[in-house]
Write a sequence for this structure.
């Protein structure tokens, strides 16, 4: 009984659970795609993906809950537009198979290396998503829209620019190192100089990526680090940026100034976190590496601490975002199909929807509450104390009357 009560109370904090689910799920995606972390840490992606997915299924959109009907979300409107009002959805499996075959053909005939790289993984996951799209039950249409928007955004941010650059330069092996040259190395250099770490950014023979040279405090020689695409953190930035875009598009019904502000602030914060990650990595090498350590401290920071710093920054931002999230966001299931509108009953204390998963109660003044929310307080509307008479807020779940 105590366990059930704790489960009910935890489930009432929908936004906190949503934050945990988002972070764990896309941390797993980040480890799956951002491979320089090594095989040991990459395996952590499996439990993170499993836990995040299970949390979405259990706490965010409970299995026993009825599908609430409301106006379409922004993601639903976008997907309806690009699918010609849903007519092209029947062709999604064909599109997915085509993407997979084209990626494999590209690797086999055009690329000098047939290995499946990060961009290949992103494209293949998008193909699998399109194939599975029409098999998703209607009650999970909102989750389907979220995944579709995520992979659409991820391919636009990471895969499409790479293909354009390779087509422009007619070089099928070219990497997108322009990001490091324009948006990472110069900014990192400026911050390090302000912190008293003298450094220079310059080309490096044999590389298309920029090099950053500095002299560690405990070494008599200069050290040059090459900020390649794999080391730049652009994959982590793309993953969390795409997740944020998909979240905003799924949770909000229309584009408003506040929505654009949140979206822009989220992307800018993700970018700043990436620059901070690079600065911290260099500072660790500058202050801690010696002749004995042979730059191993900086290498370890690059492989592990840098990713954790980025994740910590994003966690801080998203937690503040969820705390101040406007109550006008869509809390009910919506998707590409237009559903008839129906009023949503919410708890008058915590403000979240009432579902059959959590015991609810109604006061004689007409206000509804979760039992866990009202058990330690009076009704805020009429100041009456709770009683034990059963009553259902919608006629389809048990509760207690106040």
């Amino acid at each position: 009984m105590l366990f059930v009560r704790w489960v009910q109370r935890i489930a009432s904090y929908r936004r906190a659970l949503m934050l945990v689910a988002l972070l764990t799920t896309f941390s797993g995606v980040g480890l799956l795609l951002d491979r320089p972390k090594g095989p040991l840490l990459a395996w952590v992606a499996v439990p993170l993906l499993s836990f995040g997915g299970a949390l979405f299924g259990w706490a965010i959109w409970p299995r026993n809950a009825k599908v609430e009907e409301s106006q379409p979300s922004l993601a639903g409107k976008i997907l309806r537009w690009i699918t010609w009002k849903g007519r092209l959805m029947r062709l999604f499996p064909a599109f997915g198979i085509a993407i997979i075959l084209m990626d494999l053909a590209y690797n086999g005939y055009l690329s000098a290396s047939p290995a499946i790289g990060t961009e290949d993984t992103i494209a293949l996951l998008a193909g699998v998503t399109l194939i599975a799209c029409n098999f998703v039950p209607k009650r999970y249409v909102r989750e389907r829209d979220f995944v579709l928007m995520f992979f659409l955004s991820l391919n636009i941010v990471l895969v499409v620019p790479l293909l354009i650059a390779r087509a422009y330069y007619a070089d099928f092996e070219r990497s997108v190192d322009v990001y490091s040259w324009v948006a990472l190395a110069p900014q990192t250099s400026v911050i390090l100089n302000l912190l008293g770490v003298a450094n220079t950014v310059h080309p490096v023979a044999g590389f298309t990526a920029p090099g950053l040279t500095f002299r560690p405090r405990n070494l008599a020689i200069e050290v040059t680090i090459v900020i390649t695409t794999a080391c730049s953190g652009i994959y982590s930035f793309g993953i969390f940026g795409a997740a944020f875009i998909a979240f905003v598009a799924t949770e909000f019904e229309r584009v408003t100034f506040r929505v654009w502000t949140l979206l822009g602030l989220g992307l800018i914060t993700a970018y700043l976190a990436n620059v901070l990650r690079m600065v911290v990595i260099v500072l660790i090498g500058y202050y801690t590496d010696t002749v004995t350590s042979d730059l191993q401290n900086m290498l370890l920071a690059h492989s592990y601490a840098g990713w954790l710093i980025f994740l910590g920054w994003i966690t801080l931002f998203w937690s503040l975002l969820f705390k101040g999230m406007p109550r006008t966001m869509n809390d009910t299931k919506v998707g590409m199909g237009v559903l008839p509108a129906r009023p949503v009953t919410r708890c008058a204390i915590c403000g979240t929807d009432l579902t059959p998963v959590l015991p609810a109660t109604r006061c004689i003044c007409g206000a509804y509450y979760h039992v866990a929310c009202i058990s330690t307080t009076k009704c805020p509307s009429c100041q009456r104390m709770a009683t034990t008479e059963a009553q259902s807020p919608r006629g389809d779940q048990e509760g207690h009357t106040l």
In short: The chain has two domains: 2-178+227-323, 345-402. DSSP finds 14 helices and seven strands in the chain.
